[in-house]
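Reviewer 2 asked us to include a model.

Predict the structure of this chain.
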Amino acid sequence: MANQHAFGKRDFFSIFLRRLVYLIFRVIKKLFTTQSEYGPIVFYKATSQQEYSDLIKKISWFLPDEKVLANAVLVSSDNFEYIEKSNYLSDKYRASGFSVRLEHSVNDNMLFSSASIIVLTKFRYIFKLAILKNIGKIEITDPYFFSYVESIAWQNLCHNSMNKESKSYYKEVTKRNFSVLQQRIMGRENAVCFVTGPSFDAYKDYNFETYDLKLICNSIVKNDDFLTYIGGPDILVFADPVFHFGPSLYAESFRDCVFKVVRKYKCFVFVPISTLPLILNRAEDLSQYFIGIEYRNTSFHFPTSEEIYVKDNGNILTNLLIPIASSFANKISIFGADGRSKGEKYFWTHSKTAQFNDLMNSTFESHPSFFRDRDYSDYYEQHCKTVNDLLEFGEAQGKVYYALTRSFIPALHSREVNTRSHNN
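Predicted model (structure tokens):
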């Protein structure tokens, strides 16, 4: 069933209906948003031992900050004799003040009215009157609701729960690290961006010594041979709420590789700023290497030390790789961005040496709606347009872009160059 969500036939009418419900919810929520920095985060609710255990596991990853965790309440059904005896309610939770409240104790509406955020584990709970009256505070983590909503809600939860002082800490970390990176790579002219398409596997046919700035993305971190071949990356970028910041075995393995690579090569890492609490609470010794990027619904922008943000457009190549490379270099080459061939049933094909293929099913199981509600063809069409518009934006500023490998993406195909080395 999990594979069916990712590779099965799309039910476009059902996707349309779910999208419509989500858009209506988002509009109404925006009209009534009244978030307090000091009220509790209420998780509503767990109705079985399995749901309870699953929620505790997710909370342990997504709320690593003890100040935030101390302000969390998990509402459960009133027949949970095992709750206080559960091994999942560890000493960390008890010490932080994290609490579990039974459902019958919140029928006076006080908990919901005082909450800063109400996390709904199932969308249908929104129709409970006490919750509906506080719709401006709601985040939905129902894995069957719609598309990316669940994964983004979890990813941003800790950061959204912080007060202004705590958030400002991560902005200062970002500014400091961006400045250090800028000084380290000042004067670099030629950048190469590595992407995870099938053509990535031909990397040994190329000589990358002439490139003085190397950027990698995503699961390339698992390929030790490649990293050794290029002498290590200067910059790593990743940003996916499912594959990189989720609770799946895939995401856990990915993060382990990230920490290993950063410790070995001392490379700088760009991630969405909302994810810094998740990363730095697990790898405090690496805080000098992580830079949090703000995503904005605006025109294209190459980050600067004064304005560290990018246009949010839904793909690592156009969100982070090209904009960041364009911030530091004038000639940018792109390697391994194959795009999507006709007849594919997924986003596109990946290199087997730059993907955790044996763990993919764990992402399908953890985030079914993320895959179920995707129109891959429509996503790819939009991606191709974004690549074209972004490259034209950069070229208007004097940047030059090359595609080193064959690509189905029209804007890259038209910029292909043959730089294979004598190793062929």
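The longest strand covers residues 290-296. DSSP finds 17 helices and 13 strands in the chain. We have added this to the supplementary material.
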